[in-house]
Amino acid sequence: QEETSSRTRGRGHLSQLVRGDERNTTDNERLQNLPKATANPARADNMPQWAQDMMSEIKKTNAEITKYREETKTEIMRCKEEIEKGRKESKAEMEKWLLCEEVRLISETSVSLANKMEARKKEVDDTLNDQSDSITSMETKLKELEKEMLMLRRRSEDLEARSRRNMGVREGAETGKTPSEFIAGLLKEKLGLSVTPTLDRAHRTLGARRDGAGAPPRAFVVRCHYYIEKEEILRKAREMERTPEGRSGRIHIFPDYTQEVNNKRAAFKEARSLLRTYGGVRYRLRYPATLVITPEGGQTKTFETPKDAMEFIKKTLTPG
């Protein structure tokens, strides 16, 4: 409204200026017709009334023009300020819009990257799950193969042990008989067997004959034909070790195991030596390498490792 009123006033002033210019033209023509003496200020009072009115109107018009000029100048300054303010506001709005657009683009890019990473993560998880399943399956198969290999190993050791010549005695006089006949008769005589055992073969251990005085004789190695007779011979030999004749070292009978089985059985040597100091405790080493302990009036225990056997002996048994 202020701008409208200012513009209206401006148009009014301009119309007045135009009319003033027309009047000035007419008045100038009249002044030219006046006597020159009337133009002297000192004689202004002698001017006609219409001239005085015209002068007053000119002064009034000049004042209005000056006022309009100041108002216009003020209006122009105000417009400049409003334009500058609008420019700043537009710039701020533009910067705000650009910032929002940048944030939006960053957000969309972040969402896209997050989706790609999630998809990649899922792909990696699926791959890891597949690999984990494969590893689990391989571990299961490996354990089965280890069990199978252990079983085959035990069977191999057992077959090797059964196929080997399986007992030995120290060298003695053969009395002109074959080694098999001599050992069969000796075993029946010394162990008190009810029948003469059937032997597939018998021979002395490999090596040079030792006939020197005090030289230990070579041992005999024999193979029994029947498993039952072999077990009977070993049982009788264990019983004989408890007799004075057996402890004197005149005859010794022991199984001929594979090297691996012998190592496993030898690992129980300390436990067996300790068990000899405990009275009333029965023990034996079961094939291939299992220590069986039966305390007096107690329950029979079996041990696969020397460590477990030693812990049981020290914690449970009392020396007799």
Description:
The protein is mainly alpha-helical and 320 residues long. Among the domains are: 2-101; 258-320, L1 transposable element, C-terminal domain (Rec A Protein, domain 2), CATH 3.30.250.20. Helices cover 64% and strands 8% of the residues. It has helices spanning 2-33, 49-163, 179-191, 227-241, 244-247, 259-266, 269-275, 306-316, and strands spanning 167-169, 199-204, 220-224, 282-286, 290-294, 301-303. The longest helix is centred in the first third of the chain and has 115 residues, at 49-163.
Low-confidence stretches: 13-18, 34-39, 162-170
Helix content range = 55-70%
The total count of helices amounts to 8
Oligomer: single chain
Structural class: mainly alpha
List the strand order in the largest sheet.
1-3-2
Listing every helix as H and every strand as E from the N terminus to the C terminus, the arrangement reads HHEHEEHHHHEEEH
- What does the overall shape look like? rod-shaped
Care to count the β-strands? 6
